[in-house]
C-alpha cells in the first residue's frame, strides 16, 4: 500500500479533542482507538495525546510496509522500525525514542507483554543504540543539546515591545515563575491569589504545584484584570481582548502569534515561550537555588530533567576556570616561566 493508506483525523468528544486513526477505507482502527482512549483516561495533555496519535500513525504505516500486525511485533521488529524511521527525511533521535516507547506500550496494551531485544549486541546497530534496562528495551543515542538562555538585555528589549498588560503578564509568568506555555493558558482566575501572592499551577500529568508570585507579576496581573480583561463568563485568566472571539480563552495558536509578532518587532529572534522558561531555570541556578528545589519549581518529576535547564553559561564557566588557574599558579603549577624553562 501507499504511504497514505493510514490517515488521522481530529474530532471533538465531550469538549475534548480526540485523534482517530483511519484505515485505507476511512474506518477507525479499533485497536488504536481503544489505546488512544487510554491516553485520555490517563489525563495526558491534548498536545501530548496529539503527538502520541501521530506516532501511532507512523507505526501503522511502518507495519503496513513490513506486512506486520501489532500482535506479531518482536524485538527484531523494533530494529527494523528504527531503520524505517531513519530513512530520508529521517526522524530526530528524540522522536525515534518516543515512537519506540509508544510502540512497545501499544503492543503491551494488546498482548500483555512488550517486545524486547534480548541480544541487541548482535545487531549491526550496536554502536548507534543501547539497552536502557535489563528488560531489553532499546533507544537511539540522543545528542546532548544545550539551549542558551536569553540575555538580560534581550529579555528587557522583548518585554518593552509588549504593549498590553495581558501579554506582559504572560511573559513574566514564563520568565519570573518558570511556567510552560500550556500552563499559562490553563490558568484560571481562581488559580491566582494576588493578596497572598501565590500561584496554583496545573502542570504535566495533572500535577499541581504552588509558586510564590513575584511583585512584578502581581502588578501586571492586577493592571490586566482592572484595565483590559473584558467582562466574560470564562474562568480562563487569559482571554482574547478584541475581535469576534473577545472574552474567549486565548488559544495556543493565539499565543504563538503574539510571540511571532513581537519577535519581529523586537528583533529578538530567539524569544519563544520555552526560552523564557529556560532563562528562569538558568537565573535560579545562578542564584544558587538547590537542584531539588528548582525541580519542584519547574514541575519536573525528576531532577535529571532539570539538569537540562541549568547548564553553566560560558561567562560563568570562564570565571570559575580563571579562579582555578589562579589557585594552581599560586601553588607553583602552570607557571609560564617554569614551563618555558622546561622546553
Class by alpha and beta content:
mainly alpha
Number of strands: 7
Helical coverage, percent range = 40-55%
What's the level 1 CATH class of the largest domain?
Mainly Alpha
Shape: globular
What oligomeric state do the depicted chains represent?
Answer: single chain
The N- and C-terminal alpha carbons lie at a distance of 71 Å
Return the CATH architecture of the largest domain: Orthogonal Bundle
Rg calc: 25 Å
Look at the structure and give the mean pLDDT.
84
Strand content: 5-15%
**Unreliably modeled segments:** 126-134
Biggest sheet record: 3 strands, antiparallel
User: N-to-C SSE series?
Assistant: EEHHHHEEHHHEEEHHHHHHH
Please describe what this structure looks like.
The protein is mainly alpha-helical and 343 residues long. The protein folds into three domains: 3-140, DNA polymerase, domain 1 (Orthogonal Bundle); 152-309, hpI Integrase, Chain A (Orthogonal Bundle), CATH 1.10.443; 313-343, no CATH class. Helices cover 49% and strands 9% of the residues. The chain has a three-stranded antiparallel β-sheet. It has a two-stranded antiparallel ribbon with strand order 1-2. It starts with 6 loop residues before the first strand and ends with a helix. 27% of the residues are buried. Mean pLDDT is 84; it is low at 126-134.
Quickly describe the structure.
The chain is 49% helix and 9% strand.
Record keyword descriptors for this entry.
about 350 residues; mainly alpha; 3 domains; globular
List strands and helices in order, with pairings.
Elements: E1 7-13, E2 16-22, H1 30-41, H2 46-66, H3 75-85, H4 93-111, E3 129-131, E4 138-140, H5 152-161, H6 165-175, H7 181-186, E5 192-193, E6 198-202, E7 208-212, H8 215-228, H9 252-266, H10 273-286, H11 291-298, H12 303-306, H13 314-330, H14 336-341
Amino acid at each position: 500500500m501507499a504511504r497514505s493508506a493510514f490517515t488521522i483525523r481530529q474530532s471533538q468528544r465531550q469538549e475534548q479533542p480526540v485523534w482517530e486513526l483511519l484505515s485505507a477505507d476511512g474506518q477507525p482502527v479499533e485497536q488504536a482507538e481503544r489505546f488512544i482512549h487510554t491516553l485520555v483516561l490517563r489525563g495526558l495533555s491534548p498536545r501530548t495525546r496529539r503527538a502520541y496519535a501521530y506516532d501511532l500513525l507512523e507505526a501503522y504505516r511502518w507495519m503496513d510496509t513490513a506486512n506486520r500486525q501489532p500482535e506479531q511485533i518482536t524485538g527484531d521488529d523494533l530494529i527494523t522500525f528504527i531503520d524505517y524511521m531513519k530513512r530520508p527525511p529521517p526522524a530526530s533521535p528524540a522522536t525515534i525514542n518516543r515512537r519506540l516507547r509508544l510502540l512497545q506500550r501499544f503492543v503491551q496494551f494488546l498482548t500483555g507483554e512488550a517486545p524486547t531485544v534480548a541480544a541487541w549486541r548482535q545487531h549491526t546497530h550496536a554502536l548507534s543504540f543501547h539497552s536502557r534496562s535489563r528488560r531489553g528495551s532499546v533507544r537511539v543515542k540522543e545528542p546532548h543539546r544545550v539551549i542558551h538562555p536569553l540575555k538580560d538585555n534581550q529579555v528587557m528589549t522583548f518585554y518593552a515591545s509588549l504593549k498590553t498588560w495581558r501579554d506582559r503578564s504572560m511573559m513574566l509568568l514564563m520568565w519570573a515563575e518558570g511556567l510552560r506555555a500550556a500552563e499559562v493558558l490553563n490558568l484560571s482566575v481562581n488559580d491566582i491569589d494576588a493578596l497572598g501572592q501565590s500561584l496554583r499551577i496545573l502542570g504535566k500529568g495533572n500535577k499541581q504545584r504552588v509558586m510564590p508570585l513575584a511583585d512584578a507579576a502581581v502588578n501586571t496581573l492586577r493592571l490586566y484584570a482592572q484595565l483590559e480583561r473584558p467582562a466574560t463568563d470564562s474562568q480562563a485568566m487569559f482571554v482574547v481582548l478584541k475581535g469576534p472571539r473577545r472574552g474567549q480563552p486565548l488559544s495556543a495558536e493565539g499565543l504563538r502569534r503574539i510571540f511571532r509578532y513581537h519577535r519581529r518587532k523586537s528583533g529578538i529572534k530567539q524569544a519563544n515561550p520555552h526560552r523564557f522558561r529556560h532563562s528562569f531555570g538558568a537565573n535560579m541556578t545562578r542564584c544558587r537555588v538547590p537542584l531539588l528545589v528548582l525541580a519542584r519549581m519547574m514541575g519536573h518529576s525528576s531532577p535529571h530533567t532539570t539538569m537540562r535547564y541549568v547548564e553553566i553559561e560560558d561567562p560563568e564557566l570562564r570565571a570559575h576556570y580563571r579562579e582555578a588557574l589562579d589557585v594552581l599558579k599560586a601553588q607553583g603549577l602552570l607557571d609560564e616561566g617554569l614551563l618555558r624553562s622546561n622546553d
